[in-house]
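Extended Data, panel c. Modelled sequence:
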Amino acid sequence: MEATAPSPRRLLGHDIQLIGSMLILAGCGLIYEYLLAHYAGRILGAVESTIYAMIGIMIVAMGIGAFLARWVKCPFTGFAWLEVSIGLLGGCSILIMAGMLALTYTLPVWLQQIYGLHPSITTDGGVIAALQNIAFYTPFVAGFILGAMIGMEIPLIARIREHIHGKHLAHNTGTIYGADYIGAGIGAAIWVTICLNIPIMTAAIGTAAVNLVVGLIFLWRYQSEIIRPIRLWIAHTGLAVVLVVLALNGTGWVLQMNYTLFKDTPIYSKVTPYQHLTVTRRHVGQGLPSLLSLYINGRLQFSSSDENIYHSYLTYPALLLSARHDKVLVIGGGDGMAVRDILRWNPKHVTLIDLDEDMVSLFKGEDPDAPDEVEQALLNLNQDAFNDPKVSIIIGDAFIEVEKLVSEGRHFDTIIVDLPDPSHPDLNKLYSDFFYARLKELLSGDGALVVQSTSPYHAKKAFVSIGKTMQAAGYLTEQYHTNVPTFGEWGWTIGTVRGLTPSQRMAQISELPVANHWLSKAALEAAFVFAPSYFDDTENIEINRLGSHQVYQYHHEAWAKQNGVFFATMQN
């Protein structure tokens, strides 16, 4: 007696489930890809190269997984085990990466304490060095394994469809890949609109939960085709328990592991759509005030011990060399420190453009999640600058918002650009000749513009390139530097549009009109002095044209490849 072929209606039901599952799983796969790349970039640094490497590794692994799928004898059993495995690794991947990184930071300190070693004696060789290498490669290994498993889904779904239909399906591959591409697009939309706005651990658990649900539905529908289904029911139940535990504790665990990266005590942390903000505090003792520091994606942005040095050198020279400072434009500076110093010059109006609304809210005292103690401490630092009636804040991409200001015919007496270092290609455009030329349209003819320009010694090529780029955009440009103890030697680039150069204007000024404990006319003039040979070998340093990524490449080369090492070579 021959088996009865499934009716067209039943076949349609199977197809809807299988193709729908493929569409959903494709979205999950893309979210995993972005998730691992995003977090790996955050913890390993060199964000862009890490993200591209992770995505590339996962794509290659998917191709390998597609080849490996042919060795799975029973596609039903293989697919069911695949979903529970993807859910487990995907849900735990962030925790695994954070745990490995935390171990490499805490173990050397623990060994120093156990053996009573002096802090100058480091325990970073042998096993510790091996662990550090393992921690570095852990994200990529996890990405490869997860990518290989995701790559096995399409071939197995295709085999399952043909098994159910009992024949070769002419358009099977096209149908499955069509669902895969559409699902990936939906996954990308979910990543941008939802996942970037929630804790990364929550995004991982939620995606793993989708794998669990798809796996459970598949297991329920096709358990007659699956070898030893009871084991899979147990495995799926175990995964459900793991995800519940992670949902209750995972975000806190990852946060505590991330806190091990900081020498001081973290008192507040927030993941915004654009960056990870962490505020730390150190009790100095002996009646001295506590030190507050802000980290963005694990990189120090300021310390309350010396931020006034940085912000004084950022703001005072440009304000001093501008004929007026009634209208001031600030690009970046979402912590309010630059605005605080500008307000001391009694401007009529200050306009600030910053991309991250959450960061501005934190330093404005309007973050609903920040403890009152943290908010008050930050407001004390910036002296509540953002709530001054003279200050208006524009939330948006400076590249776009500056164009709007130009089209409105706005002009400013002084422009201060206080952006993060060009450590990401997205920032590179804000260090380009095009952007500086657009700022020139906004700057009064007798005004001055200053740009935070990274370290002149640890990232010399990037520093010089910024100066040459401003000069190419039509500014009379000079560069200056000083020592900020937290950062080391730091530099800025200042430009005027016409008339006298910055140093010529400074020569006509007898004293600072606004007193500053860290600045004097003599100190400012000294800041413009570099070593005699500093600019001797800079003729081959390129201008940062829009789209060239030149400054980003110089900065990446200095920190990722040379570890910020400066070579003071002997000259004959």
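The chain has two domains: 8-259, 305-528+538-561. This feature is highlighted in the accompanying rendering.
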